[in-house]
Specification:
Shape: globular
Distance between the termini: 11 Å
Organism: Chlorogloeopsis fritschii PCC 6912
Radius of gyration: 18 Å
Helix content: 10-25%
Number of helices: 4
Largest sheet: 4 strands, mixed
Protein name: Molybdenum cofactor biosysynthesis protein
Oligomer: single chain
CATH class of the largest domain: Mainly Beta
Pfam family, one: MOSC_N
Domain MOSC: 92-263
Number of strands: 15
InterPro entries: MoCF_Sase_C, MOCOS_middle
Order of helices and strands: EEEEEEEHEEHHEEEHEEE
CATH topology of the largest domain: M1 Pyruvate Kinase, Domain 3
Length: 265
């Protein structure tokens, strides 16, 4: 690891869970270890379940643009021209009505300022992946480019300056963590993230790529670095790193260009 200099090359937050990302230059850490504004809002059905790509493929064709300064969200359906714009706080009911009409059932928008709505509430910090990993995965699938892979896997922090799957340094055996730092922000690497059906689908249309998961599992196993902690792979449908951040990191910022340094392994 001494011959590489990992650094943050991209930062993404997803203001509304399951909808489109916002690229940022810097992001602040909350007391829970989550990133400010990431998955702060989520769409729920009447049964209290998330409306997301796992449950409803119509999510994939829904495009969104979120202005972090004004809290204005613009929505449109893929390959259409009609754009609907709402203030997510002042026009919440109108936004819910628009989304309900699109999905075909009533929905509610909920907000969580403390943690957002992460998939993993134990390892609720940002997810991390390397650019080289995304490039390698794109090479496994004819017709899929790096940007499409990036859109499918939806990581928060992208690291450059390292080879593919370098981020597998950031987890250890079960019940152990790897301590590292990005800029002046302390992290604990927890585990490789288990993926779901969403990454098998086109991020813009929801169309399923044939044998995506089967190919991924075979190639991921073949590509797993010799030094990686294999005990964390009860299966090989895992990619990107789940993290936790101590409460002491509240208010600190992660910035494009910040270097990553591992303290223990």
């Amino acid at each position: 690891m001494t011959d590489v200099i990992p650094y943050v090359s991209r930062l993404f937050i997803y203001p509304i869970k399951s909808l489109d990302r916002v690229s940022v230059e810097r992001v602040t850490v909350l007391k829970t270890g989550a990133l400010k504004g990431d998955r702060e809002f989520a769409i729920f059905d009447e049964s209290g379940h998330f409306v997301n790509g796992k449950r409803n493929q119509r999510v994939h064709a829904l495009r969104s643009q979120f202005n972090l300064e004004t809290n204005i969200i613009s929505l449109f359906v893929q390959r259409t021209k009609d754009i609907a714009t709402f203030h997510i706080e002042k026009e919440r009911k109108a936004l819910e009505n628009w989304l309900g009409e699109y999905f075909g059932f009533p929905v509610q928008i909920r907000q969580n300022l403390d943690m957002g709505f992460p998939d993993d509430t134990v390892a609720s910090g940002p997810t991390i992946i390397s650019t080289a990993t995304l490039e390698t995965i794109a090479s496994w699938y004819p017709g899929i480019d790096v940007e499409e892979v990036r859109l499918r896997f939806r990581a928060n922090i992208e690291i450059s300056g390292v080879p593919a799957f370098w981020e597998d340094h950031l987890f250890a055996k079960a019940e152990q963590t790897v301590d590292f730092q990005i800029g002046n922000v302390k992290f604990m690497g927890v585990n490789p993230c288990q993926r779901c059906v969403v990454v098998t689908r086109d991020s813009q249309t929801g169309e399923t790529y044939p044998n995506f998961q089967k190919t991924f599992v075979v190639k991921r196993q073949q590509s797993l670095p010799e030094w990686a902690e294999r005990s964390r792979f009860n299966h090989f449908y895992r990619l990107a790193i789940n993290t936790r951040l101590p409460a002491s990191e509240e208010g600190k910022a992660i910035v494009i260009g910040d270097k990553l340094q591992i303290f223990t392994r």
